[in-house]
Amino acid sequence: MKNKIFSLFLLALVFTVGGCETFDLDQLDNPSTLPKEQLDPISAFNYVQLTLPDFVDSNNGFTQRAIRQMAMTGGNTYDNAFTPIDFDSNWTTAYLILNTIKTMEPKAIANDQKFILGAAKIIRCYIFMTLADTYGDIPYSDALQGNLNPRPKYDNSESVYAGIYDELNQAIAYLAASSEAVNLQPRDLYYGNSEGKGDTSKWITLAKTLKFKMLYNASRIGHFGGVDVNSQLTLLLQENDLIKTAEQDFAFKYGTERDVPNSRHPLYNDQYEFGTGAYIANYFFWTVSKEKNKPAKFDPREEFYFFRQANLTSGNTTSQSLPCKTIARPPHYNDEAYQSFYSTALKAPYCTSDEVGGNAYLGRDHGDRSGLPQDDGLRSLVGIYPAGGAIGAPTVVNNSANAGLKGALGQGIMPMLLSSYVSFMKAEVALTLGLGGDPAALLEEGIRNSVSKTTTFLPAQTGAPDPAITATKTNTYVAFVLGVYNDPLATPAKKLELIVKEYYIAAWGNGVEPYNNYRRTGYPSNLQPTLEENPGPFFYTALYPYVSVNNNPNVPSNVRTKKVFWDVSGITLH
Amino acid sequence: MPTVNVVNKSTKASTQTDFDGKYSIKAKAGDVLVFSFVGYTDTNVTVGASNVVNPVLKTDAQQLGEVVVTSQGIKKEKKALGYAVTTIKSEEFASKPSTDVVRALTGKAPGVNIQQTSGLSGSGTNIIIRGYSSITGSNQPLFVVDGVPFNSDTNSDGNFVEGATNASSRFLDLDPNNIESISILKGLSATTLYGSAGSKGVVLVTTKSGNTKDVNKKMEVSVSQSLYMTEISGLPDYQNSYGVGNELEYRTTFGNWGPSFNTRGEGGIGQDGTVIHPYSYYGTSVFPEFVDQRVKWAPQDNVKPFFRTGYVNTTSVSLSGRGESTSYNVNVGNTSDSGFIENNNYKRLNLSSGGSTKLGNGITLSTSLNYIKTDKTAPPTGYGYGSGAITPSIFATILYTPRSFDLFGLPYENPNTHESVYYRTDITNPRWLLKNASDDEHVRRFFGNFSALYDINSWSNVSYRLAMDNYTQAKRYYINRGGVQTPRGYMRTTNNENTVFDHTFSYNFNKELDKAATWNLDGTIGVNSRLEAYDYTALESFNQFVYGFQEHQNFQNHLGYSEKQSFNKVGVYGSVTLGYKKYVYLNLQARNDYFSSLLKENRSLFYPSASVSFVPTDAFSVLKNNKYVNYLKLRIGYGSSAGFPPPYQTNIGLYEQTSAFTPTVGETVNIVRPDSQLGNPNLKPELYKEIEFGLEAKFFDNRLGIDFSVYNKKSKDLIIQADLAPENGNIVQAQNVSEISNKGIELGVSLGIIVPKEDGFGWNLSGTFTKNRNIVGTLGLGVDKIAIAGFTNRGNFAIPGRPYGVIMGSSILRDANGNYIVGSDGNYVVNNDLTEIGDPNADWKSTIINEISYKNLTFGFQFEYQRGGDIYSNTANALLSRGVTEDTNFDRNATFVLPGVSANGNINTVQISSTQYGFNNSGFFIDEQSVYDATNLRLREVSLSYSLPKRMLEKTPFGKISIAVTGQNMWYKAFNFPKHLNFDPEVMSLGVGNGQGFDYLTGPSAKRYGFNINLTF
């Protein structure tokens, strides 16, 4: 009996000491993550707004290097400069944003949050058009279906264009009908006022401008899907609701917080914090500061664009700090094709932006993958525009004593579609299609908008020139450019190249637009060649990323010479 | 002889001999006493007039009734087992230089692949039994200590890039000196009863405190003390001809392709043989004394002083005894292990006690309780890529310190700010890092069990066992402000509480089915339920305020994170063994597991197993007492098991981040979005099946022993965290898509070359041979490769039809005929498409152990040989590309032409300089060039031990005194590496897990040597 009681006691113990706990078999949900039902469209749209500049930044990682805004140092030829894995982050970021938009839509519809629905759709379209411009054919119609279709097919870039053109109209319709209460509206990080309250009209203007940009990209081919470029362009120009003021500019505004969360411009983080950031391309330094063969700072944007940590002298540029100084200039750098657009006396830059003059910026040549010399304190950096960097007299800003504490503290912008860009686009359309006004006036408008944005996007900074001086210099600069444009000997091709070159300069900080322009027009034609004379074919499109190549059997083969549907120039790019 | 059973056949009275072999039993003249002992022939003695009966027992070649512990703690005669079990006695791992019990077993069990992550004290250890059978799941075996599952996870904060290899594997908490024996169950037919947890093999550890076998003396105390030294196993042979620079020019590069040390007046070297002071560039505000100074252009001794000799001090005391029907023991172990580098220390305190008592009512209660305290410090060991490291890493740059840089004669910190100073600003001075960063780990662990057993009758019982294993692992990682990677300092503390609760209720029986004992049936049926949970919190702090003070309040910004997880597994199991005449045994087992984190329709899995053991030497009279064949056993087994995914894979919650962005106007922005992982509602358990066949035999008076197994294991429905094409909206999903197979042979041999006679000379040779071949089957629809470890552009991959974990990376571009293509610059052209560049799996491994004894002196040495197995080595490519070793001490004025063809197919004729040749073509730019065959031979262990003869101890209180001198890893040779690297490929820079074959400068191997004293009284 005693034994039985003891046994029962034991049995009771089994079930009391956690017996039941260990038998519970329904534990499917992770207690440490929020349930799916709690996806709030406003917070999700916050993610979309914040991550969009990351998408552009990762795209810049490729396009700015292809187009010589930043120096391509990952390889000495196009074969080894970029590999599929380099595109993973851009692609993944894009589709995670797109999936967030798609996932929150049902709830936003249920809540009647039309502002979010419209604005998110515009961002969706911006991402899809940028993907199509960068990669060509991309997954679009089948994309974002999760378990229903883990391996979506790729759509032709033209049908992607057609699809998103239509979606932009839907976005406009959403925004136009938006009448929800303020608490259902998003915090607008792009166009919001100091309380974050947004402005649907600016988003509508953005949507129309994106339509304009798509038509402009396709202007050489005349149509996409059922969309006729000329008639649509004409309509949009007549309607005259395209981005034209700085308030309408589509750009992400960074903050100054250094850690937790680091809210600064990525280039500022890169160049002002650790000492060894990415090199800016010597060609871009040269084309802004030297190519016009004018005195230093002839372009009023120069000192806003770039910051020199030290004037280069024969004393500080040793074989230690500037090894290319002791290596002979490659002969093909002397080809006429690469000389200055304005002055045949000026050959392509080599080693620095100005190897002979004292006005040199220290960057890197295209395809220079050699090891890193001791030039931390010599490298020229991005300036106040667009990264919120420093301006003024040369001083070392990126050593650890100064790290992250110099200039405008990273309070830069990620420019995506600015009023100056629109002016240059209009100028080209006017010149090539004869639509919508005087190309020279639009060219001037573009330059003035660009200078104004560059010099005034932040309140006046210590070390910046007096606005009156900038105004005078702007006039001189405009006069010079228009002089070249109006030169009686200037062919339409030369005029177009001039417009595209000015657009190229104005697009500092954004690689997407100049990369499109280069492929569409072949301009600027004198981009610095790679140090290696035979680098292989240029990237007519980016490589499909490793994550897709490896996981989606529908991915087209990865060749650099495949083209976006609108790329019909036939020019061999370098 | 102790514990001999003595039975009086007439009265049925019985007793056992005591420790000294003495016994007393009531008997009258004419009674027959039967003396029996496992492994000896029963001896019958008829009692005569004398009161003393001292028979001599003869060993029984046939019987060899070795008893082994099998699953669920069931003890069985080894000959009844239809599967392979390797038992390792405490002499093999106790009192050894290695404080990690598993590491001490390296090479000792066939089919068990043990690999250290590095030679640092307290670093993790990888253990794989019979190959990798899961693709992205864990392949580490289950540890069972005293019958209870024991958490052996390697918990690292972050990944290998951040230095995860530093993390300890939690079996390190076991004190080797407190372990009685270890059994390794390799096949699935052996482990079925453990359920899914045992599907990768089971390591059964019996501690002294959990050992409930009778203790023979009232009280016994044993003390063991060892002192070992630990050193880096080998340093490269450095060249003393060329200093830092490029193209024979002095430059402050990483590489040593500068001028020769004899250069004068050119290449940046002054006429007086000096160069500008490497610190003069800091200017007058930092080092005014170095401005405009020059230093001699000469080689320096700048690597060796970085390393030290560490000391491993182990003290262990154990006490055991028994009372009337109670046995007890208490063990204390203290280990202090300091590594071969400053700030690498590992301390462990083990306290344990156990006991068992038999109550009058037929209930036996037993318990075992253990408390462990470990404290480890180590410098951070992040991934080193050969030009520094992304996260702080102590070994990332030290080995290729420029030959001409006087690391130990110059300051390592800025005297004003404590910042790191170096000959260039983009590398942290390794000496600075040693003083200013640490990765610490503190564990407080309690585990133990309580069990009650009730004998229902003479042949059956019921038992209940409650076991728990609870530990808290607190980690602290910090780097002071002033380094290169985190110039303003960083600190992270994490706390991981891990809990296992395990209940087992079982009914056990063992019955002779007929009077003649021809048929015997034994078995068990039971229910086992287990809860495994962890609760993790982390706090990261950024921007140190006051230099050198590591508390969170001394940092400006903070980020917190927490996570908890819990799952249950319930299993119902049964096992029966039917024995016929003690020479044929049939064993049937089955278990059904239920897992709490899968959908109801997928959460249950039933898996059976069966095995047969047959002992011909007991079955056929012709083989009995045979001179040549002493013992023969054949076995065949089929087993199956399950693998469950980590919890919460079917339904994925949201990703959120607070304080994602701070705009210049307005409040900080918080975000939420769908997770990037896609849930898989159809996920089900993995299924493993294995068939094995074995032969165990003894020949020639037991001089030659063989234990041989072959197996074929197939795993299907393997769960992988499959990468998804992001365009579906998600980037990863758990999927049951893959298959893998492992086939292998395991051989253990022992050979008595000279059998010792009466304290004479003896020589015993034993060895193991292991060969496992695994092949990845399908990976699922359309997937031709999966990255399983490392980087996705250079790492271990699963590829259908190829061995698991082949190394993929960039290769040299080949033309259609397979010739290397050389670019117009004279260097090889890289092919960035992923190419298979190596197979890290060894072709085979073998161990040979020699034991030579003379009287009380024993000399032993263990050689291990690994054939094949590739490793990608950043140690090799960094040292070669930087030109610091003797391997690169060639004439640097010469030019080189790489063998290969140009793009147009002509033989390459482009001449390149020595810098180009060495720097560009040693694996820095093309992964293929960094892959080496890791075939190696090593002297794993050498020892000389002496136990004092009994007669010398008679007048002392000691029962036993022995002294041993032991060395581990005293010599090795990796045949296919450049000679002067002296590289030991026995490192794993990807850490414990499924990655293998990568050396990322995360820590070299060590050698250890010293002595040990054992006292028993």
Structural commentary:
The complex is a heterodimer of chains A (574) and B (1017). With 574 residues, chain A is mainly alpha-helical. Chain A has 19 helices and 6 strands. In chain A, 44% of the residues lie in helices and 3% in strands. In chain A, strands 1-2 form a two-stranded antiparallel ribbon. Chain A has a two-stranded antiparallel sheet with strand order 3-6. In chain A, strand 1 and strand 2 form a beta hairpin. Chain B has 6 helices and 49 strands. Helix content of chain B is 3%, strand content 47%. The relative contact order of chain B is 0.12. In chain B, a hairpin with an 8-residue loop joins strand 8 and strand 9. Chain B is globular. Classes of the chains: A mainly alpha (574), B mainly beta (1017). At the A-B interface, helix 1, helix 2, helix 3, helix 5 and helix 19 of A face strand 22, strand 23, strand 24, strand 25 and strand 29 of B.
What is this structure's SSE topology?
The complex is a heterodimer of chains A (574) and B (1017).
Chain A: H1 2-16, H2 19-23, H3 41-66, H4 78-81, H5 88-110, H6 114-135, H7 157-176, H8 200-217, E1 223-224, E2 227-228, H9 229-239, E3 250-253, H10 266-272, H11 282-289, H12 302-305, E4 306-307, E5 381-382, H13 384-387, E6 413-417, H14 419-433, H15 439-456, H16 467-486, H17 492-506, H18 512-521, H19 546-551
Antiparallel strand pairs in A: 1-2, 3-6, 4-5
Helix pairs in contact in A: 3-5, 3-6, 5-6, 6-7, 6-8, 7-8, 8-9, 14-15, 14-17, 15-16, 15-17, 17-18
Chain B: E1 5-8, E2 14-16, E3 32-36, E4 43-46, E5 67-69, E6 75-77, E7 85-89, E8 112-116, E9 125-129, E10 142-145, E11 148-150, E12 179-185, H1 188-191, E13 202-207, E14 219-232, E15 274-276, E16 294-296, E17 310-322, E18 326-338, E19 345-358, E20 363-378, H2 430-436, E21 437-457, E22 460-479, E23 490-512, E24 519-544, E25 555-580, E26 584-595, E27 604-614, H3 616-619, E28 629-643, E29 654-661, E30 669-674, E31 677-678, E32 686-699, E33 704-723, E34 732-754, E35 761-776, E36 786-790, E37 795-798, E38 806-812, E39 830-838, E40 844-854, E41 857-867, E42 870-873, H4 874-881, E43 895-896, E44 912-913, H5 914-920, E45 931-933, E46 936-947, H6 950-953, E47 960-974, E48 998-999, E49 1006-1016
Parallel strand pairs in B: 10-13, 31-34, 42-48
Antiparallel strand pairs in B: 1-2, 1-3, 3-4, 5-6, 7-12, 8-9, 10-11, 12-13, 14-17, 14-49, 15-16, 17-18, 18-19, 19-20, 20-21, 21-22, 22-23, 23-24, 24-25, 25-26, 26-27, 27-28, 28-32, 29-30, 32-33, 33-34, 34-35, 35-40, 36-37, 37-38, 38-39, 40-41, 41-46, 42-45, 43-44, 46-47, 47-49
